[in-house]
Design brief:
This protein has a single domain, classed as Ubiquitin-like (UB roll), CATH 3.10.20. The radius of gyration is 12 Å and the shape is globular. Helix content is 14%, strand content 21%. By secondary structure, the protein is α+β, with helices and mostly antiparallel strands. Strands 2-1-5-3-4 form a 5-stranded mixed sheet.
């Protein structure tokens, strides 16, 4: 089963096993991790699931859609590594994935 390590804004981290086909956002919610709010429930409409994904994991996930890019463009603190975790669907990754949860304060 793939694993995701969530690096939280307070400097702590949580490692979670994630089902194939599950989003990084939904795994965070299921495990009650802080930082990913997911107000829209994963419909790519609110950007409250903002994370930073290192380019080394770019080959694991689909390229961002135009909708995702548009939402990220208006986020405070967005960078070239910004993604919406609702759009990051875990597939057959054979390595642990690390994401940094954006500080929503």
């Amino acid at each position: 089963m793939p694993r995701v390590t969530y690096h939280l804004p307070d400097g702590s981290f949580s490692r979670v096993e994630v089902n194939r086909g599950q989003s990084i956002m939904s795994a965070s919610i299921e495990n009650n991790l802080p930082g990913i709010v997911a107000e829209c429930g994963g419909s790519c409409a609110c950007a409250t699931c903002h994370v930073y994904l290192s380019p080394e994991y770019g080959d694991i996930f689909a390229e961002p859609t135009e909708e995702e890019v548009d939402l990220i463009e208006y986020l405070e603190g967005s960078t070239g590594e910004s993604r919406l975790s609702c759009q990051l669907i875990v597939g057959d990754a054979d390595r642990e994935i690390h994401v940094r949860v954006a500080d929503s304060r």
